[in-house]
Amino acid sequence: MNLNVMIKPPLSLTKLTASSLTFHCKFSKTNMHSSFSARARATPTVQNVPELTPEEMERVCEQTFQRYTSVSGLAKRKGKGVAIVWFRNDLRVLDNEALFRAWVSSEAILPVYCVDPTLFGTTHFFGMPKTGALRAQFIIESLTDLKRNLVKRGLDLMIQHGKPEEIIPSLAKAFKAHTVYAHKETCSEEVKVEKMVTRNLLEFVPPISGELGNEPRSTNATKLELIWGGTMYHIDDLPFDCESLPDVYTQFRKSVESKSRIRNCIRLPASLGPPPEVGEWGCVPQVTELGLQSEKVSKGMKFMGGESAALGRVHDYFWKKDLLKVYKVTRNGMLGPDYSTKFSPWLASGCLSPRFIYEEVKRYEKERQSNDSTYWVLFELIWRDYFRFLSIKQGNLLFHAGGPRKVDINWSQDQTMFDAWRRGQTGYPLIDANMKELASTGFMSNRGRQIVCSFLVRDMGIDWRMGAEWFETCLLDYDPCSNYGNWTYGAGVGNDPREDRYFSIPKQAQNYDPEGEFVAYWLPELRALPREKRHSPGMMYLKPIVALKHGYTKKTGDSKMAFASRRAKPEDNRRKGQGDRRTY
Ligand SMILES: Cc1cc2nc3c(=O)[nH]c(=O)nc-3n(C[C@H](O)[C@H](O)[C@H](O)COP(=O)(O)OP(=O)(O)OC[C@H]3O[C@@H](n4cnc5c(N)ncnc54)[C@H](O)[C@@H]3O)c2cc1C
Ligand SMILES: Nc1ncnc2c1ncn2[C@@H]1O[C@H](COP(=O)(O)OP(=O)(O)OP(=O)(O)O)[C@@H](O)[C@H]1O
């Protein structure tokens, strides 16, 4: 059933972008967790990610490309004619198999990116902006960088505005391309586009002179070759078909770790040219050309889009700051660039290959040290792979209210409550600070994402898809598989059959922001309070919008964290048939 007909997109949502939101809103458990960036604590200014000068970034990028340039003789170009590379979420040169296959099979490559208006429309159920201004800006920077890196290799990037299913076939016809190479996607919106491109390529077959009429037209058609390339483990190397993917992550992980191996990165020759003769390559668009208002990050992390920045961040985090060796103890932090890798925005747009990260981890283990932390980055990347493969198994159930398990929960779609969550005005500093960070920077820590997800679905009882769609709008690292996969887990409708993951705000605050530095950073009005009061500010802050479903657990033990004093009436969370509850 298509719920679109039942739920009208609320007007306020269709109009509200992250920028207007910022405007409207103006009114470790261990020591490692609290030892977040001293700079972030001291100055509410912008922190660039990566924190490298342009010269350093250029140098790192060149050195990395040199290491990954194929030695002569390894790869031979033996094709004829023109091949098109249709760039999608693979905005990189390094370890790009589509680019490599196009080079091998042709005399000239035409690299193309389509600025697809569908990506700047609205989300499926609740009509929120599908791509917010900050992610649009990140993509624009990524395209600028890709163009530059292709030019360095004797090519260029053609940028066309319109639907790929129209542009790609007409370019194939104009350039008489024999093949279009692109990376395979897995969710239905993207797969639909792949099917339309294939169909339209068939329709554009020029008539063959003397054709008898009974020859299959497809013999002459440009082929669309879809290549798998976004995961660490290649789909063809899995020890099972995606349809029989284990329902439990640990089983998946143990199985691939013991039975599959990770392929080497693809090495490309130094020069990929020449391109075919092109009259007009087209320009990288401005945010405003995409129907969005330009937004500037004025506080928190500012991520720079593009492959060069991605390689720069790997260098910065692994080699310059030497943080890989402590990743496992810092990864649950919330403030500043350095508690975790921050690779996700570049992974989601394909500026960074997970196989390259794997090879860098192995190099680090050889040259510096190998420990639980170095392994744990790979452990997390296997989660990412898992959600990608699960999206094939689950299909559109991933996006449905009942999720893959088809759980029947009568969710609320209360707009006022949802707006309070989205704007960071719930009265709970930990929620509000995280939501403000998301709207202002396009990023939120994994810890924060789990907490705000639990609060929305379990304390507010709101439809998890509203939260997932708001994340879809705002996140720089938005990826349908990881986003909807994690939300279905958080909402208790995912594969994870046994657990009802409730995140207790007092407990999370105490464990992950014990000094209240994170909340004071995003809610400066709390900084004047004593540290132990910042998570329970009382009258000087907004009144909590709902009572917590399971307020306070004995284990956290501090009566100063009591939230109950001014809270609203307990919310009927409308949940039926939950599994075991675990409080985090
Ligand atoms: C409700 C919710 C929504 C999320 N939506 C997205 C999303 O749209 N896109 C996205 O990339 N991640 C998503 N995540 C996963 C995770 O929060 C981010 O990948 C992580 O915070 C990115 O920061 P990092 O690169 O510093 O991660 P690190 O801790 O440094 O981890 C390294 C890499 O491992 C992968 N990874 C880590 N945790 C997860 C995870 N739980 N699921 C999948 N991959 C993971 C990411 O690629 C990440 O870059 C979501 C998590 C939750 C709870
Ligand atoms: N990449 C993506 N990002 C966000 N949502 C996606 C993506 N790919 C698919 N979806 C969502 O998948 C869902 C598909 O909805 P649904 O299962 O109702 O399918 P349909 O094609 O609309 O109709 P039906 O399958 O019932 O014929 C929609 O919510 C759609 O937006």
From TrEMBL:
Annotated Pfam families: DNA_photolyase (PF00875), FAD_binding_7 (PF03441)
Keyword Flavoprotein: yes
Binding site for FAD: 327, 340-344, 380-387, 477-479
Keywords, ordered alphabetically: Chromophore, FAD, Flavoprotein
Coiled-coil positions: none
Domain annotation Photolyase/cryptochrome alpha/beta: ranges: 81-224
Region (Disordered): 557-584
Keyword Flavoprotein attributed: yes
Annotated site residues (Electron transfer via tryptophanyl radical) in this chain: W411, W464, W487
GO annotation terms (biological process): photoreactive repair
PROSITE patterns linked to this entry: PHR_CRY_ALPHA_BETA
Cofactor binding note: Binds 1 FAD per subunit. Binds 1 5,10-methenyltetrahydrofolate (MTHF) per subunit.
Cofactors demanded by this protein: FAD; (6R)-5,10-methylene-5,6,7,8-tetrahydrofolate
Molecular function terms, GO-annotated: deoxyribodipyrimidine photo-lyase activity; DNA binding; FAD binding
Biased amino acid composition, Basic and acidic residues: 568-584
Family affiliation: Belongs to the DNA photolyase class-1 family.
Functional description taken from the UniProt entry: May have a photoreceptor function.
Name of this chain's protein: Cryptochrome DASH
Species of the source: Nicotiana tabacum (Common tobacco)
